[in-house]
Design goal:
UDP_glucos_trans; six-stranded parallel β-sheet; about 475 residues; alpha/beta; UDP-glycosyltransf_plant; 17 strands
Length: about 475
């Protein structure tokens, strides 16, 4: 069989690249004729990507050996990015990189010297690199979008775009209102108060999700990191909507090969099964001193064991991930360490997958990033939702209201304009998560155990995600350029 090559252009940062590599491994493991070249457009703020790709390059197995990494140097930006939102800077970064991507595709796959019996069969992009669909179209190549959020949120993006393009109405008009929006991919009307901040920023970031939704509609297919058993309603709803490309829900795609931190693991080993509450708020999640004190009071009052990942906010105007909190005893209530030392552990950055997989973890307070949601489902760990940014508020709504699979702390919370969440509110959610749900016949814990089994079956032969991946591979093979 003739070999087929895909070009994959991940979004910025390690998180996007790791997810792209995981779907790449899945594709090449199921189709021996497929190879994938990742175009890595280097960001100055990322230092670990080269090390990661070099590590993968020396792994000698039939799947990873068909993954290649090509680092491209982006053009120098001519604009001042100091006062622009981070999302706008990243989108502009990729928009300015279209020419170097085009040249790299032509040089590596479309010139006489690059002909080697391998046919370039398509381009995969993600949400931040979506403008590369235009490059693929110019070169006569089919394009696919790897969508790393939920199918429900994908439907919300299309809803906002249709509202603007067909009805000349901005979704941001509903800001600060009690409006309930009839978004077809949610079972219940969606409160405007949980819309992503970008959709509420009429004169700034709103154009980004609208532009992305328009661009995604031009793709041949959308590969979504979800599975039918988790989101049956959103997936079926999108399948009925006009102008939406073919949908391939092939998840949950998770990087399970994460190294453990021995000091964390040793402590967890000493705890009873399902007894530890894990608090972790993602790569960019952090709180001010006043909010940290409220969390500490709640943990002390509820009396449960806990593992708490603490990060300090970045300086104003600085882009990047928060640092670990160097001296937590200086910002937490006096005596907190002494009073909780036998049942709690404070850490900095957390190897989240390794922690969630541990038998002693019984609950997870999460920022509701979609990867974190899928990881929690995979290991059957009940969640309490505390969204921070991006689309996390609507993820929390889906989990708490539509799926009834999580406890709510504050689903409308936003890190850019935070309100104080009281210790009483936090403690109430912790008690429901760690104590009450263990007794409920159809509670959160039981639903998570059921979804854990469904998530794993979906990936096996005969499962829903296995089936959709087969369809995707067939589509790639059948519609290759001649």
């Amino acid at each position: 069989m003739e070999s087929r090559e895909l070009v994959f252009i991940p979004g910025p940062g390690m998180g996007h690249l790791v997810a792209a590599v995981e779907i790449g491994k899945l594709l090449t493991s199921r189709a021996n004729c497929l190879s994938i070249t990742f175009f890595i457009i280097d960001l100055p703020i990322e230092t670990a990507i080269h090390t990661y790709t070099k590590t993968l390059a020396v792994i000698d197995d039939s799947t990873t050996s068909r993954l290649r990494f090509l680092h491209l140097s982006p053009p120098q930006s001519q604009s001042n990015n100091r006062n622009k939102p981070q999302e706008a800077v990243l989108v502009e970064f990729f928009d300015n990189s279209k020419q170097i991507v085009r040249e790299a595709i032509v040089e590596n796959f479309m010139t006489p010297k690059s002909k080697s019996g391998t046919r370039l069969t398509g381009v995969i992009v993600d949400m931040f690199s979506d403008k590369m669909i235009e490059v693929a179209t110019e070169l006569g190549l089919p394009s696919y979008v790897f969508f790393t959020s939920s199918a429900a949120f994908l439907g919300l993006m299309f809803y906002a775009q249709t509202l603007k393009d067909d009805h000349d109405r901005d979704i941001s008009d509903f800001k600060d209102s009690d409006t309930l929006l009839p978004v077809s991919t949610y079972l219940n009307p969606l409160p405007a108060k949980v819309l992503p901040s970008a959709m509420l920023d009429k004169d700034g970031r709103l154009r980004l999700p609208l532009s992305t939704a328009r661009m995604i509609r031009q793709a041949k297919g959308i590969i979504v990191n979800t599975f039918l058993e988790l989101e049956p309603h959103p997936i079926k709803s999108l399948g009925k909507e006009d102008g939406v490309p073919s949908l391939y829900p092939v998840g949950p795609i998770i990087n399970l090969n994460q190294e453990r931190d021995e000091s964390i693991n040793d402590w967890l080993d000493e705890q009873p099964d399902s007894s530890v509450l894990f608090l972790c708020f993602g790569s960019y999640g952090s709180f001010d001193e006043e909010q940290l004190k409220e969390i500490a009071i709640a943990l002390e009052c509820c009396g449960c064991r806990f593992l708490w990942s603490l990060r300090q906010p970045q300086a104003k105007g600085k882009i990047g991930t928060p640092d670990d909190l160097a001296r937590p005893e200086q910002v937490l209530p006096e005596g907190f360490f002494k009073r909780t030392s036998r049942r709690g552990k404070l850490i900095g950055w957390a190897p989240q997958v390794a922690v969630l997989s541990h038998r002693s973890i019984g609950g997870f307070i999460t920022h509701c990033g979609w990867n974190s949601v899928l990881e929690s489902l995979w290991f059957g760990v009940p969640m309490a939702t505390w969204p921070m940014y991006a689309e996390q508020q609507v993820n929390a709504f889906e989990l708490v209201v539509d799926l009834e699979m999580a406890a709510n702390i504050k689903m409308e919370y936003r890190s850019e304009s935070p309100v104080l969440v009281t210790a009483e509110e936090i403690e109430r959610a912790i008690r429901r998560l760690m104590l009450d749900s263990a007794e409920e016949k159809n509670g959160i814990r039981k639903k998570m155990e059921e979804m854990k089994e469904k998530s794993r079956r979906a990936m096996l032969e005969g499962g829903s995600s296995y089936y959709f991946l087969e369809n995707l591979i067939k589509d790639i093979k059948d519609h290759s350029p001649t």
